[in-house]
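To fix ideas, we now present one chain and its tokenised fold:
***
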Amino acid sequence: MVKMESTEEQDRKLVLEFIHLLEKSKQLFNGLRDLPQYGHRQWQAYFGRTFDVYTKLWKFQQQHRMVLDSKYGLKRWQIGEIASKIGQLYYHYYLRTSETNYLNEAYQFYAAIRGRAYYSRAIKEDRPDLMVKKLRYYARFIVVCLLLKKMKLVRELVTELEKQIQEYTTTYEPEDHLEWSLVLEEIKGFIKAEAAVAVLHADSNPIVLSHRLSPLTTPPCERSPHMTLSLQEILIVGSACEQAKFSELTMDMFRMLQTLEREPTETTHPMSASHGLHGHDASPAASRIPPYGVPGSKGYMENSRHYRDNPHKYLLYKPSISQLLVFLASGFKELPPGGALLLYMSADGCFSTTKHPEDYGYELGGLATSVKRDGVDGGGLACRGKSYKETHCLYPGDLYPFTRRPMFIIIDSDNSFVFQHIPRYFGQPLVVLMSPQDVPPAFQGRAEVQHHGSLFTLFLHSPLTALCYICNVGDVPIHHWERCQSYVDHFITEASRLVTRCRIDEIDQGYIDSSYVQFFGDDFLRTLILRFVFCDVVLRLHRGFRGRHMRPRCEPPLPSNELLEHPTLSHIIFQLATALDVRGHFSDGPECD
């Protein structure tokens, strides 16, 4: 009898310990939203404590499952909720660190929830709030799968989400059913827009290609002592109206963030104690939490630079001007010696009505950072010109203070050229890549052009996809794609060689500004510069892009004869056009073999 009481007492203590860990984990998780979104060290310690508690909670429920089932009444959806929170932790840690390995960890936990069907009986609990948690889990899982380019799984998840939304709506007739229908439509529209050009297997099924940087896709470079800078901080801002979006990621943001990341690795970090999940039917191993040491812990902080593959980046969707400037200042502050800051902005133009501008910093207009409701036009959303108030516009002059450090700016807008006059007051390296401000009439008539994302960003993300798109090539067999990609690779290699052979620093045609050379040693910045060259050469040779506003610009200007109009680069584009059977889209030039 004494032994029985002892066992019951032990079980009671186990239940109380579980309740304590569960409440502590919820408290810490809810506190994450109060952490600053910018800066590095202000939030890492808190994340470390949160990971630590969830590690203990996950191990605890695994080790004492039988007791918790019988004495606490632990349900499968509650285990799923813990796993979902861990997945969210990893996803948000990815957003804060830009390390794609954490994205893989989020995927593992989300996949386990689906594989073990933790939420399968949620509808039978007669709790609409539980169904909302299930729907949110699906939406988050879809975002992670999109970022990892698991498109087949994305389509399966969208089908399941649609079924779950229908079941939720039919059962509870909730007030938020229209919001969930909108979420579903956003996802479907995003998936459709993302597939700008289909690459097909021999059986005509589409192939998913990754456009993150890898050793095979990193442009070659002849190193020189002038190549001193590395990309360390990135701001990716998406404010374009009427562009496909999902979960505060516009299509342009989605493409650019992948362009500025390396391909995730599947290797186990030396600090990790586990090789991870063993298929969808296994629960995540407790030792998975966390890999790479506890994020935010002393060990992690000491080694984070060593293991960091990607520059740190912020993602801002339609920020206010004050938010944008705060995040810019934070990135500026965090720059280490030898580091460069990249600002990418995809936004609609704010246009000036000043007839004789004297101040190029503020009188030529700028970019709309966020769309506000304007009482003058009856509450509608205005995307152009004078409907914007001055406070919602980023002007070139707003960036002057940040040019005290090396800065690389990409502007994708119908008012991009106003950023070509930024002065170099402080003598630091500065490059501005600007999109075309207009597209040919043939493209203006295509309703999907604006919705599917910017053409300029597509060139920076996947040059071959962009070339196919402007030549109306909707699908390409994989063997043909690989052959065409070899021409693109050849172009990039030749362009890299031409850049490094140009003479530096003289103010004259035929010389290249030292800013390009200093940035050229960084893999990401070199890739962007060379893809910009590809875009410029292609659009200059394309019959449809005849106006000067239909081609990109850069400041300082790149040399024409020695680079942009070099016959070797033009010849490769003609060869590529011939291989794609779109030679007729391009101007007359030498016949291609």
About this structure: Residues 230-263+309-371+390-585 form a domain with the Rossmann fold fold (CATH 3.40.50). DSSP finds 20 helices and 16 strands in the chain. The chain has two domains: 7-196, 230-263+309-371+390-585. The two ends are 94 Å apart (CA to CA).
